[in-house]
Amino acid sequence: MTKKNFLLFIIIGILLSACNNASTNTTEIATPAMEKELRNAIAKNPDSLLLTENLIQYFRDNGNFGQAIAETNLAIKKDTANARLWDIKATLYFQNADTINAIKAFEKVISIDPQPAYKISLGLTYAQTKNPKALKLAEELLKDPFAKASKQAQFIKGFYYSYIGEYQHAIAVFDSCLKLDYTYIDAYKEKAICLYQLTKYNEAIQSLEKALALQSTFDEAYYWMGRCYEKLGDKKQAIMNYQNAIQIDPEYAEAKDALGKLGNGS
User: Fold this and answer.
1) What architecture is domain 203-266?
2) Which pTM was predicted?
């Protein structure tokens, strides 16, 4: 839709709204059928956590994180010690780019149930916010013989060092991670990002190629391949890789923006 048509669409919408308001004093916004169906199911089975999660997921899928979090909070009020609900809340905050509240919620999860999966989530969030607590949590995972999370612990460390700009250190840790599991594609990608930051574009491409050999639909690998080729001055390869990323994920905003800057946007 062009900008001109978009403005016309808005004007028509305003006029229609004005006409409707003229005929009725109040405008009633209809509840979507799916939401109504989910709420009716919950009303019949108020203790069903699965139905509550379905409603939360409905709002999450529609990008309405505020309402998803509100529904999660209502569920938590009924069961304050439910670690799964706190994990859902933390994840919603994280996906809505609210890392401060995500960390608070993840910390609450661990205080209720300190299982490795929850510690990994918190560790990665600490790392992304440059919080050195990430290293402490990684060590806890490494020392726990029952956690079986050595590669994830190493990944958290590498992730943290990458975010604070210690790229060489991060690369060494990602290599340790890959020695534990050579199929860990995220470690190849994060290693490539560090190499990219060090302007070692060809080495970064090699790391990304290893990830793609393991998973040919790894959209982030194609995106970073595109960035590397762009730095190397190979516009054709850059465009092809950005297009591959978008083909896998049509909503890949960064890839679409990069492609547009090269004059090949859709």
Assistant:
1) Alpha Horseshoe (1.25)
2) 0.81
Alpha-carbon distance of 136 to 157, in angstroms, equals 9
Look at residue 21 in the predicted model and tell me its pLDDT.
46
Whole-angstrom distance, CA of residue 98 vs CA of residue 4: 34
Residue with tokens 């990458």, as numbered in its chain: 162
Burial of 109 (0-12, 13-18, 19+ CB in 10 A): buried
DSSP 181: -
Burial of 84 (0-12, 13-18, 19+ CB in 10 A): middle
Cα–Cα dist 44/115, whole Å: 33
Q: Is 48 left (phi over 0), alpha (psi -120 to 50) or beta?
A: beta
Cα–Cα distances in angstroms (integers) from residue 253 to residues 190, 249, 266, in the given order: 19, 9, 12
Residue 29: its pLDDT value, please? Answer: 56
Contact between 122 and 103 under an 8 Å Cβ cutoff? The reply is yes
3-state secondary structure of 1: coil
